[in-house]
Design a protein that fits this description.
The complex is a heterodimer of chains A (about 450) and B (about 350).
Chain A lengths: L5 H40 L2 H35 L1 H10 L1 H22 L8 H30 L5 E3 L2 E3 L3 H5 L4 H29 L5 H35 L1 H8 L10 E3 L2 E2 L5 E2 L2 E3 L2 H7 L22 H27 L8 H27 L4 E3 L3 E2 H4 L6 H29 L2 H7 L3
Antiparallel strand pairs in A: 1-2, 3-6, 4-5, 7-8
Chain B lengths: L2 H35 L3 H12 L3 H18 L2 H9 L1 H24 L4 H25 L4 E4 L2 E4 L1 H6 L1 H28 L3 H32 L1 H9 L1 H19 L4 H23 L2 E3 L3 E2 L7 H29 L3 H4 L5
Antiparallel strand pairs in B: 1-2, 3-4
Helix pairs in contact in B: 1-2, 1-3, 1-6, 1-8, 1-13, 5-6, 6-8, 8-9, 8-12, 9-10, 9-11, 10-12, 11-12
The chains are: A mainly alpha (about 450), B mainly alpha (about 350).
Amino acid sequence: MYLYDPVIFSRILTSFTLIFHIIFATIGVGVPIMIALAEWIGIKRNDPHYLLLARRWARGFVITVAVGVVTGTCIGLQLSLLWPQFMKVAGQAIALPLFMETFAFFVEAIFLGIYLYTWDRFKNRMVHFLLLIPVAIGASASAFFITTVNAFMNAPQGFDIVDGQLINIQPIVAMFNPAMPTKVSHVLLSSYMTSAFILAAIAAVSLLKKRKHVYHKKALKLTMIAALVFSVGTAVVGDFSGKYLAEYQPEKLAAAEWHFETTDKAPLIFGGILTEDNEVKYGLEIPYALSILSGNSINTVVKGLDDFDPELVPPLWIHYLFDLMVLIGMTLTTLALIYVLCLVIKKWNPHHPLLLRCIVIAGPLAMIAIEVGWIFAEVGRQPWILNGIMKTAEGATTSKNVDTMLYLFSALYLVLGITCVRVLRKVFRNYPAEEEIKQNGM
Amino acid sequence: MSYEIIGITVLWIFLYGYMIVASIDFGAGFFSFYSELKGEKHQIHPLIERYLSPVWEVTNVFFVFFFVGIIGFFPDTAYYYGTGLLVPGSIALILLAIRGSYYAFSTYGSKNNKFYLFLYGATGLLIPASLSTVLTISEGGFIVENDGQIQFLYKELFTSPYSWSVVLLAIVSVLYISAMFLTFYAQKANDNPAYMIVRRYALGWSLPTIIASLFVFFAINQHNPEHFENMVDISWVFVLSFLCFIIAVYFTWTKQRGGLAFIFVMLQFAFAFFGYGASHLPYLLYPYLTIYDHFTNDTMAITLIIVFILGLFILIPSLYLLVRLFLFDTEYVKGKKE
C-alpha cells in the first residue's frame, strides 16, 4: 500500500540533494588549494608544467563549481521548503553562520570569475596567483560556516527554551558549539584529502595509458604528497571526533560500535554482522580500543546502548558506514605513504603499474568515504533534527506533493551528473595535456 | 530606524540587485538563443559571453543572499512561504539548476551545443515567470492558514488576472533591461553590427514594458485595494520612474550615451521597485505576516546587521574590481584581452 508521508519524502529528497551536492562541494573546497599549490610551485620554480597543471585543473574545476553552485542553491532553498518548522527555529538561532556563508560564497564567486579570465592579463604572475587566495579562503570559509550550522544541529546551545519559545539567544555561542571544532576540521581536511586523491587518480590514469610525459609525473608527485599530509591530518582529527562523540553524543558512538553494555576496557568491534537478537557475528574485536578512542585510557568508561531510551537510539546499521569510512581512510593513508616511500627509496618505482592502479581506485574511494561519513554523521543523529530538542518529524513540511518533487529532483540530479561527466571527459579528451604543452612550446 | 526596517531595506536592496543582474543574464540567454535561430549568433553571442562568463556565479549569490537573509531577519517567512511555495519554489529551483549548469557546460565545455543553448534561452524566460509568483503570492489570497495548516491555492493563482499580469511584466522587463544593457555594452565595444541588433531589441521591448506595468497597476487595484491606495499615496515615485524611462529610451533612440541610458533604466526600475516595496509594507505576506510581529530576536538582528556592514567592506571593493576588469576595461570589452 502506498502511504504518503511528507516526513519520509522530505528526508529522502534532502538526502538525495546532499549526497549529490557533497561530491561537488568537496571538490569545490579542496581543488582550489591544489590549484594554488601547483601555481605557487610553478611560479617559484619557474616551471611551466606546474602552471599548466593549475590551468588545466582550473578549467575542469569551473565546470564542477557550476554544478556545486546550483545544487547548493537547491539545498539552501529546500531547507525552507522541506523543513519550514526547523528553519523557523534555525532562523532564530543560527542565521548568523548561514548569512556569513553567503558572504564567503560571494567573495569566492567574484574572485573565481576574475581568476579564470585573467591568466595572461598581468605582467607579474604573482598578482594572478594572489587572486586565487580569496577563492580558496572563500571556499573553505563557506565550508566552515555551513559546518557550524550542522554542528549546531548535533550540539545545540546558545539559547534557552521557555514554553517552547527560544529566548536569550547568543548567536556566537550557538555557532561555536562543542561539535564545531572536530566537525569543521574533519570536513575541511577530508575535502582537501579527497580532492588530492581525485587529482592523483587523473594523473595515474594518464601514466597508465603510457603517456609518460614528465607533466603527469609532476602532477602525481604533487597530489600524492599533499594526499599523505591531508590524510594523516584527517585521521588525527577523526580520533578527536571519536572523543567528542564519547562525551557529547554517546548514543551515536554506541550505535556505531554496537556497544551494548556500559563498561570500561571497552573493545572496538570492526566489521561483523548483527543478528536479530543483537549478537555480533564474525566481527573483529580489538581489545580496549573503544576506551582508548573515547578517552585515551583503557579505564575510560564507555556508555552502552542499554543506558539509552530505545526510542532515541539511532539505527544500528550506521556501524557498517563507520567501519567503511575508517577502513577507506586507513587504506588510503597507507597508499599515500607507500607512494612517498617509493620517492624516498631509490630502488622502489613510484610509477609501478600496480601502485598506479591502486591510486586510480583511491580517487573514487575517497569520495565514497566522504559520502559514507556524512550519511553516518546524519543518520547517527536520528531521530533528532536538533539533537535533544526537535525531532526530525516535527521539523518537516506538511505540504502535499513532496513525492512529486522528489521524482523531479532525482531526474534533475541524474541528468546533471551524466552531463557533467560527459562534458568533463570531452574537454580533456579533445585537448590532452601533451598537445597543450606542444602548442605552448614548452 | 527600527531593526525591522533596516532588515527589510537591506533585503530589498539585494533583491533589487538580483533583479537587475539576473534580468541581464536571463534576457541575454534568450537573445543568444534567438540570435542563433535568426542566424545572427556570430554577431552578438561572443559579446554576451564576454560579459557573462566572469559574472554568472555572482548573480546567483544575490539570490542566495536574499533567501538566506529573509529567513535570518524574519524566521516566520520560512514557515509560511516555505510550506506554501514547495511546488513553485522547487520548479524555479530546477530551472535555475538547469540554467546555471548548462551555461557552464556550454561556455567552458561543449561549445556550440545547440541543445544547451536552447535550455539556456528557454529557462531565461521561465525563471523570471516562476520567481515572480512569489511577489504575486505576497499580495495575499493564495496562501490560507486553517488550523495551523498552510494551504496553497493553485487554482486561484493560475486563474488570477493579477498573477498573469505580473508574469507578463517580469518577462517583458527582463528582455527590456537586458537589451538596454547589451546596447550599452555593444556601444562600449564599438561593435556596430551587434549594437544595431541589440538596440532594435531594446526599443522593441520598451513600450511593452510600460504597458505591462500599467496592467499590473490595474490588477493590484482589483486584487488588493489597500496596497493600491498606498501606491497612490506615493504616486510621485512612479511618475519619476516613468520620466527615467522616457530619458533612457530617448538616449537609445538618438544613439547617444549608452552608459547614461542604462543608468536611467536602473533608476526607472529602482523607483518602481522601491515604490512597490514601500507601499507593500508593513506586510511580508498579506494579511498573515508583517515585518513587526515575527521579527527575529534583537541579538540576532544586531549581529546580522554588524556582519552585513563588515561584509560590505569586503564585497564592495571586490565587486568594484570585478566591474573594473570586465565592464569598464575597454580593451577587454572589445575582446582584445582574454
